[in-house]
Amino acid sequence: MESKDRDRIEARADQILGMEAQVSVSLVRRRLLRLVMQAYAGLGLMAFSGAIIFLFFELDWSREERIALLVGIGGLTLSVASFFVSWLYSQRELSKAEEAQRVSHRLMSRLVYLEMIEEWSRFEATARSKLADDQRPNRRYSISEIIRSLRESDKIKPIDTEVLNYCLQVRNSIAHGNLSAVDAWETSYLLRRLRGINDLLSKVD
Description:
By secondary structure, the chain is mostly helical. It has one domain (2-201). Helix content is 83%, strand content 0%. The protein contains 5 helices and no strands. It has helices spanning 2-58, 63-129, 143-152, 158-175, 184-201. Helix 2 crosses helix 4 (158-175) and helix 3 packs antiparallel against helix 4. The protein is rod-shaped. The two termini are 27 Å apart. The mean pLDDT is 72.
């Protein structure tokens, strides 16, 4: 059964990764279009500066005044163009960093979800082994009965009961592919708590 759960979550995770990849491609295209438009804006500014230079050269100015004006406008245009190119480069690098962070987060989330499925399987196996009953095979205990029995026998603490019930909700959401209801960071925290419970449970009689 757990193998089917793992296959289901892997299939669902692959589907979501594919959807997010399509969204990422769309965002990249939009950024590219925005960069092109910004490049046109920069070229337009330089063209405007060139027109101003031409206009002033048509006026009856002295040679020295024209040279000074040319140097001033050329310096201004160069400064604006340099700033614009630098800004475009920083935007491109920022986009790459954001995309890498999103991919890393998606992969981390997928790994955490799969580990939660496996750790919960470990909990069930360990807990059932602690509930030996000749009158009732432990495999017939429901999850809620397992948690309640562990608490009544003082094998777990009251706070552990709350953690286990929450882990069960998260595990079921993951197993059924409802990943929108699950937060990766919260799942990571619950996973650490569940591992601690499993480690302690394996040591009690």
